[in-house]
Design a protein that fits this description.
The protein is α+β, with helices and mostly antiparallel strands and 127 residues long. The chain has helices at 7-23, 70-85, 87-95, 100-121; strands spanning 30-35, 44-49, 54-59. It is built from four helices and three strands.
Length: 127
């Protein structure tokens, strides 16, 4: 079964992103928040230009078999912004010859830990 995000979902994603930008120390970045209109875009994406300190985080429209919920949408906004926060480290690891898979695995260990800590701390806000 496919689930599709809508304007209400995007508004929640954007609101959550705006909340986290200063808390993650990203206020000096130019961050755009978009709602993808392409099918098969996945749940979310990010694009980063580290040297320019510009990033775009995007909520996907098609979620394949992943049931959408407010918790998942909020968590995705946080997840994509942590990617932005870690972008310099990602670039340094790539420059040192680590594979894309090694970098992704290492970054996601950190990102998922932060997500879980955040969700435990503020669980009542996400129910």
């Amino acid at each position: 079964m496919k689930y599709r995000t809508n304007k209400k979902d995007f508004d929640l994603f954007k609101k959550e992103a705006i909340k986290w930008i200063p808390q993650l120390g990203l206020s000096n970045w130019r961050i755009e928040v978009e709602h993808l209109d392409a099918e098969d875009s996945g749940r979310a994406q990010y694009e980063i230009l580290v040297n320019e300190m510009v990033a775009t985080i995007k909520l996907g429209i098609d979620w394949q078999d992943d049931k959408k919920s407010n918790i998942r949408i909020k968590r995705l906004a946080f997840h994509e912004l942590v990617h932005v926060r870690l972008a310099r480290i990602e670039g340094m690891l790539a420059a040192r010859g680590y594979s894309d898979e090694e970098i992704s695995n290492a970054l996601h260990e950190v990102i998922y830990t932060f997500e879980n800590l955040h969700m435990i701390k503020d669980k009542s806000k996400y129910e």
